[in-house]
Write a structure and sequence with these properties.
Bound molecules: iron/sulfur cluster
Shape: globular
Number of helices: 5
Radius of gyration: 16 Å
Order of helices and strands: EHEHHEHEEHE
Length: about 190
């Protein structure tokens, strides 16, 4: 595991980072700390959500428009100084191995949910894709399990490939692999 540190206000932030780092140790491929000030919030990503290729727009409490405006989402994230960005990498049989992609996503989501349960009250966790806790989201009826609702990097208007560049973490780990991103704020 590679860890790159670029910590703002290190004395104040170090205990949270140590706890998060210990929790992900051995379960991630790469991780790095970046200042939240270096995160780019992109109206283009928001527009991509509106096109609704993933089918979650207007159908999930964890996706736009339910999550709020780009400005509101950025304000929430910028209230924290640092983000621990981490990835998991999964081998595939070939580029059409959709089952392998889903298996990898399930493993990644489980890690993000574990962190959310342990740290979410003080350190918001942002996962890959929308909330997948329920087979079908209750939206627009009330969320069935608000404590399990996992925010999403993409639904927050963050371009994952730019995030990977800022963090110095690889977006793509080669042929026949899939890489998923999450982040923890502290
Ligand atoms: S916990 Fe269930 S109802 Fe709530 S946002 Fe997630 S999928 Fe939707």
């Amino acid at each position: 595991m590679q860890t790159t540190l670029n910590l703002r206000d290190s004395e104040e932030s170090l205990p949270a980072l140590k706890a998060l780092n210990k929790a992900i140790e051995g379960r991630v491929y790469e991780c790095a700390v970046i200042s939240t000030a270096d995160i780019v919030f992109s109206p283009d990503i928001r527009r991509a959500c509106e096109v609704n290729l993933c089918g979650n727009y207007g159908r999930s409490w964890a996706c736009p428009p339910a999550v709020g405006t780009l400005e509101e989402l950025a304000t929430k994230i910028l209230a924290y100084k640092n983000a621990l960005v981490f990835t998991t990498k999964h081998d595939l049989e070939d580029s059409f191995d959709f089952e392998g992609m889903q298996r990898g996503k399930d493993i990644h989501n489980q890690l993000s949910l574990d962190l959310h349960e342990r740290f979410g009250k003080t350190n918001p966790i942002y996962g890959a894709g929308g909330c997948s806790h329920c087979e079908k989201c209750a939206y627009p009826d009330p969320c069935r399990a608000p404590e399990k609702l996992l925010s999403s990097i993409e639904a927050s208007g963050i371009n994952v490939s730019e995030l990977s560049r800022s963090a110095g973490v690889k977006y793509n780990n080669g042929p026949n692999t899939v890489t998923y991103f999450s982040m923890a704020l502290f």
